[in-house]
Amino acid sequence: MLDLLMIAAFSGQVAFNAQPQGVGWQVTPMVTVAHPCLCRIEIELHRQGGSGSIVTHQKSVLSLSPDAPRTLSTFFLSVSADDIVTLRVTVSDSGTASFTGQWSPPQRT
């Protein structure tokens, strides 16, 4: 029962500020937590296209204040029409609780 309470106590959200930039996107993930946290942040960028696929990772530990959105990084992504791109951010506490946000560019027609 205590584990369930701890998971409920660790909550927050990941938001993405995404702006089109020519043939690509400028994407800035932001994290907000409900309670003070020394959080592990993992950012994964998955990209698959005509020239193959790639996965990149960034990991860090940040001290986050409650209800204060924190900008993590800014990505400049050149995206072709046939590319599949997913940017995933996972935030976890020192235990087992975590939350995740994900962004992909809109499909081109």
UniProtKB/TrEMBL annotation:
Family: Belongs to the CsgC/AgfC family.
Protein name as catalogued: Curli assembly protein CsgC
Matching Pfam families: Tafi-CsgC
Principal localisation: periplasm
Origin species: Cronobacter condimenti 1330
Cellular component terms per the entry's GO annotation: periplasmic space
Cell location: Periplasm
Residue stretches in coiled coil: none
Entries under NCBIfam families matching the protein: chap_CsgH_alph, PRK10102.1
InterPro entries, A to Z: CsgH_dom, Curli_assembly_CsgC/AgfC, Curli_production_prot_CsgC
